[in-house]
Amino acid sequence: MSAPIFWAAAGLLLMVAEVLLPGIFLVWIGLSALIVGALAWAFALGGMAQVLAFVLVLAAIMGAIWKSGLHRRRQDSLNAPAIGTVGRVVHALEFADGRGRVRLGDSDWQARLAGGGTDPAPGTALKVVGVDGITLVVR
Fold first, then answer.
1. In whole angstroms, what is the distance from residue 85 CA to residue 127 CA?
2. pLDDT at 109 > cutoff 60
3. Domain residue spans in the chain?
4. CATH hierarchy code of domain 77-138
5. Closest Cα to residue 88, out of 102, 72, 74, 73?
6. Any idea of the CA torsion for 61, 5, 42, 60, to the nearest 10 degrees?
7. How does pLDDT run across 34-65, given as a tens digit for each residue?
8. pLDDT at 73
9. Is residue 138 within 8 Å of residue 114, measured between CB atoms?
């Protein structure tokens, strides 16, 4: 098997593995392998030049990812601005001792009352005033 075909096959195999085992890291290694395959084919690179090219291309891709901020995972994705959980109106399903469940859209969520108070009756409209982990804080 010639070197460009090897690099292309390895790159495609890694990208398929990314689909089957999602983790957003194999795709970048696979992309690097595809680029090195193209470079090896276009410039007839030798073995050490291919390995060096792979390391440099992978470092460039990882550097671009790091600089763009794609490596950061949002810890507060439940109340990210795009999600907009705070301020939404929910409906009480059941409550006991200030804790219960509410309906938000087509999902049921754990909820607790902000500042205590009496438990709302099922169907009562409540407003989300905060998020505590995966529990909605409602009033």
1. 10
2. yes
3. 3-68, 77-138
4. 2.40.50.140
5. 102
6. 10
7. 999 999 999 999 999 999 999 999 999 999 98
8. 57
9. yes
